[in-house]
Amino acid sequence: MQPAALSKTEIEPPEQARGHEIKVSVIIPTMNEPAISKVINETRQALKHFNVEVIVVDKSTDDTAKKARKAGARVITQEHVGYGNACMTGFRYIAPDSEIVVILDGDNTYDPYEIPLLLDPIIDGYADLVLGNRFAHMHSGAMTLRNRFGNKIITRTINILYKLRLNDSRTGFRAISRSALDMLEIRSEGMPFASEMIIDAQKKSLHIVEVPITYRLRVGKPKLKAYKDGSEIIVLVVRMVRDYNPLTIFLPVGVLMIIVGIAFWLSVVQEWLATHTATRLASIIGGTMLFLGGLQIVFFGLLADIILVALRSRR
Predict the structure, then answer these.
(1) What span, in angstroms and rounded, lies between the C-alpha atoms of 221 and 164?
(2) What is the pTM of this model?
(3) Rounded distance between C-alpha atoms, residue 308 and residue 238, angstroms
(4) Cα-flanking dihedrals φ and ψ of residue 187, to 5°?
(5) Is 64 helix (H, G, I), strand (E, B) or coil?
(6) SS3 149
(7) Torsion of CA 93, 133, 227, 176, to 10 degrees
């Protein structure tokens, strides 16, 4: 794998002839992006050995759309709101013969000349979804400490719950094969879209690969609402676990309740052995309720898991 920091002339597809045969669609969600012309021009230059189309999904109140058209992009006006909605809108307009889809921000934080780094694993056949790891080559001040911390928490949570080993689950620079994209069932229209794409890809047993990329200072105003978007992402992660792998939630919770219930009972037994009386009525009732409730939760998780396995086998 080539390192992320390469000059514009050094990043070339391994086989230029093969590149001309591959159709690449680049989706760029925009909202008042001063650097959009630069991003589009560099994207076209980076992919000059590919058959490329650039689709800008725009929700701007300035001249971003005009600049994008002048730079040669196809501009789609976003009717609704949200990052996920913009991406999914772009997906609906990609060419029928497109083989790889790239998602790229329009604020110049990502280097378009690094797009081939994301394409290579897909072209070589060992990846379906490629994510750009921003922490590999991040410029000073490109991400706030708050966003770094939130990203790490969300990424670690996804890694634990879905058995992944990612460094940056929130990256907005990614590529996916058309066949893999057609398999995904994504519903999130906001910032959780990025996490849901990874989670659904993992559930579909798609091959996910990370490559090191450069992350630069943003041109324009940030769109991320850290607390609101972060809470929505956490809710999404929990919901996806509940829907796709219920035992991950129900089994630990149920077992914990059973253990606590037994602990209450043990205190009652200890008192009985020492005094031959049982005065801790609250411990008896509480322990029984926790034990029985824990059993119900475990059985519910097992039943939900059996039903999900049966439904998947029928698809």
Answers:
(1) 32
(2) 0.74
(3) 16
(4) -120, -20
(5) helix
(6) helix
(7) 20
